[in-house]
Specification:
flat; about 100 residues
């Protein structure tokens, strides 16, 4: 709950996870205004970067896949490793 706004914001930049971050945000009962703010800002920045990259690359845009593919795989692997670490080290609070 404490970092939910930033998690949603940053996950909007990560392949695969940008489409799924809404589920954990909803499950954590994140407020709609905060969720919409983080989603709007993160998505707007991401799409602006993509549009600008398309403008710069023009017809050579497909060549970018050579670089984007491995970065997307490494990013996804890093997030999965961090998530797995959190799951393994998670301690249930008994209250």
């Amino acid at each position: 709950n404490r970092h939910g706004l930033w998690v949603v914001f940053f996950f909007r930049f990560l392949p695969t996870f940008r489409t799924m971050i809404s589920l954990p945000a909803g499950m954590a009962k994140m407020g709609m205004p905060r969720f919409l703010l983080a989603t709007f800002v993160g998505s707007a920045i991401w799409n602006a970067v993509l549009a600008y990259a398309g403008l710069l690359l023009g017809s050579r845009f497909e060549e970018l896949q050579v670089y984007v593919g491995p970065v997307a795989i490494l990013t996804t692997a890093a997030v999965v490793v961090v998530w797995a670490y959190r799951v393994v080290t998670w301690k249930r609070r008994v209250g």
